Amino acid sequence: MPLSPADTLENNPDPTPAEAAHTHDEHNHENAHSPEAAHDHEHEHSHGPVLNPDCTRELVLDVPAEDVSKSFRRVTREYQRHAKIPGFRPGKVPEAVIRRRFANEIRKEVIDTLLPERFNQAVRDLGVTPVGQPQVTNLTVEEGSPLHVKAVFEFIPAFTIDGYQDVAVPKPPVEITEEEVQHELEHLRESRATIEPVEEVRAMVDGDWAQISYTGTVEAEPEAAPVSGEDSLVEIGGKDTVEAFTTALRGAKPGQTINVAATYPAEYPEKRLAGKTVDYTIDVKGIKKRNLPELDDEFAKEVGSFENLADLVKRVRENLTNRKRRAVEAETKDKLFAALIERFPFPVPESLVQEQIDARLERGLRALASQGMEPDQMRKLDFGRLRAAQRDSAVAEVKTSLLLARIAKEEDVTVSDEEVDREIHIAALQSREPVDALKVRLTEDGGLARIREQLKREKTAHLLYERLPG
Question: Is this model's pTM higher than 0.85 or not?
Answer without folding.
Answer: no
